[in-house]
Hints:
Domain ATP-grasp: 109-294
Distance between the termini: 34 Å
Number of helices: 10
Strand content: 25-35%
InterPro entries: ATP-grasp, ATP-grasp_RimK-type, ATP_grasp_subdomain_1
Structural class: alpha+beta
Pfam family, one: RimK
Protein name: ATP-grasp domain-containing protein
Largest sheet: 5 strands, antiparallel
CATH class of the largest domain: Alpha Beta
Keywords: ATP-binding, Nucleotide-binding
Amino acid sequence: MADTDTPLIVLLGNDDDDDDHRVLFDGIRRSGGQPRRVHPDELVTEATAEGTRFLVGGRDLAPDLMFGWVYEDYLILGMNQLETARLAGIPVVNSAMTLLRGQSKYLNSALLHRAKVPHLPVLWGRDENTLAVWTAERGYPMVTKPLMSSRGRGMHRLTDEASVRDHVRTLGPGPEQYYVQPYVPARHRDTRVLCVNHRAVAAVERVAPQGTWISNAPGNTRHRADLTLELRAIAEQAAEAMDALFAGVDIAQDEHTGELCVYEVNTCPTCTATFRELGAEPVPLAELASFLVAAARDFDGARRDWRPSATF
Length: 312
């Protein structure tokens, strides 16, 4: 382990979100920690009856805390490594199960509904007739999403029974399933609330690009949003339901009823580019850095007592 006055914090991830990692690492250093990124392919693990060792480049790696930032292609490998670290007694922020919950829209929905977080009804499976009956009973339009995706990839609106049946027939072989929920008339926008240690620290409104209804699609525009008490409450409840110590909670407001609902919770949310576009410092990453250093020194104490020093 590193000197407890300068705890070693290892981010497990690749360089896809390099801008966010650089900002986070600067914040960790300012908060008194030593950051290091380790790619899942670099990490070697030895498990024996005497204990578990982690090595990078043939040298022992002894982190005071591991922070999981893995998704898509590296999700399963990273989950195994993070869970092994947790079993070896290393504190882990955004654990293996948290990251799986954040990637899987199925688990997102199951957990949000279980915790009574306002969320849309969903149906997932492969049976065509069941989906056709369900959508007809609830009314159109509907939205379908891939099990694991980001930035609006693979989302479609289903407008009638024919489009529902066509969608089911496009599913590939194997375990691919549909995931369908009602369309929310939200003026083609949503609000992402960033949370650290289950506490809201920033809110950004996202507006869909011209010609599309998908608010998180590439080319969207972003604006600072007021972090109202209602937004704060629903976001914090959602982050806690996922046990996500760093989370981006996507929330829509129905333009007809005014009601808020959570679309989903992202457990590897990027924010540096957004905040630069808004001409502001990435407050969520500064707060995350502060929390990670505190958690590396006293994990249980930080989870219990840490509070953000600033909000956006």
